[in-house]
Amino acid sequence: MDTETKPPSAAAYRNLVTATVGFTLTFWAWDLIAPLASWYGDRLELSSFEQSLLVAVPVLVGSLGRIPAGALTDRYGAKLMFPLVSALTIIPVLLLIVVKDTYGLLLVVAFLLGLGGTTFAIGIPLVNSWFPPEKRGLALGVFGMGMGGVALSGYFTPRIAKHGENLPFIVVAVALAAYAVLAAVLITDRPDRPDRPVPTASLAARLGAAGRLRVTWELSALYAIGFGGIVAFGVYLPTYLKTWYELDPTDAGTKAAGFALVTVVFRPIGGWLSDRIHPALVTAAALGVVALLAIVQAFDPPLNPGGTTALLIMAAGLGTASGSVFALVSQVTPQAKVGSVTGIVGAMGGLGGFLPPLVMGAIYSAKGSYSIGFMLLSDLALAGCVYAWGRMRGIRPEGEDPAPEATKVTAGRP
């Protein structure tokens, strides 16, 4: 039997679980500032835009950092990269204790904290290499549940802070240290993949090759809408709920955690559906739902039940789209380039979450309303829905040739 058609081994599931736990912890670290944004705002007398910039900086750095992280994972493997990045993330987490009273230094540490957001591009090629094509959608969706670290941060960070303003950072730093040790022991790069040779070209050459694949940029655009929306809500929803619906920081963090939890649950559902239905169809349907509910929220419904319902359904759509887009990535990307392509696509997804908090903060400062921001989200989601339906249904798996023909993707082909 061909290696690709064998059922996943115990090692495959061990790597999946370990990578998902690491992704969760590093995402918690990556999102440490957002649940405390209003606390920083009151403490340092920050404007709405300054708060938005503070929570957006880690998103930007974590997004761009996925590009080299993915390419380095192709070259050196996740066994080295996962524990290394987890250990290095401890440094900015602890520095948040030192710089909490200086906005300029907080921005610098927020920049360094972006390192925690790069593990996405490390875990995707690891999981992709251990699972056969017909199981990858669900496996990648399960790994994607690690973005639930945002939900953990939204719920636990402000509550832990009530017992000591420095305590959340100490707890996360200890957890990261313990995980770095476990990851070094438990993660193994799959050794028996003849179709996934270790690349020998330079980092720039490999990123250039990945960048020349048309599908890289098509999927980047879709992921910027789906995952970008998740990141944007993850970092800005507590501020939005506190400002517009006048919730206290703990209540706002709890509801934001609920939003993030729904995205986490629906991400593997998006991958599972994509193993059975063309992932472009799943993506189009999910983004169509997001477009509709963003219009509803633009009319500022009462939080209970209208606003809560609209936000949670949007969360389900965004989570489903994130899972289906990466199911498509796993099908159309050459194995030796999965890390590089994942890095670029993941970076664009993260960048999709960088601008909305800034835009929302600027719009509210200028207009005293968030409606324009939700209408912009609706427009982008509708554009993604139309493109996924009209173009991505006709894409085929790519080999090393970057020009795809218009044939249907099948779940059983890599």
Overview of the structural elements:
- With 414 residues, the protein is mainly α.
- Helix content is 75%, strand content 0%.
- The chain has 17 helices and no strands.
- The protein has helices spanning 10-30, 37-44, 48-76, 78-98, 103-113, 120-130, 133-144, 149-161, 167-186, 203-211, 214-244, 249-274, 279-298, 303-332, 338-352, 355-367, 371-390.
- Helix 1 packs parallel to helix 7 (133-144) and helix 3 packs parallel to helix 5.
- The chain starts with 9 loop residues before the first helix and ends in a 24-residue tail after the last helix.
- Residues 397-414 have low confidence and may be disordered.
Short description:
The chain is mostly helical.
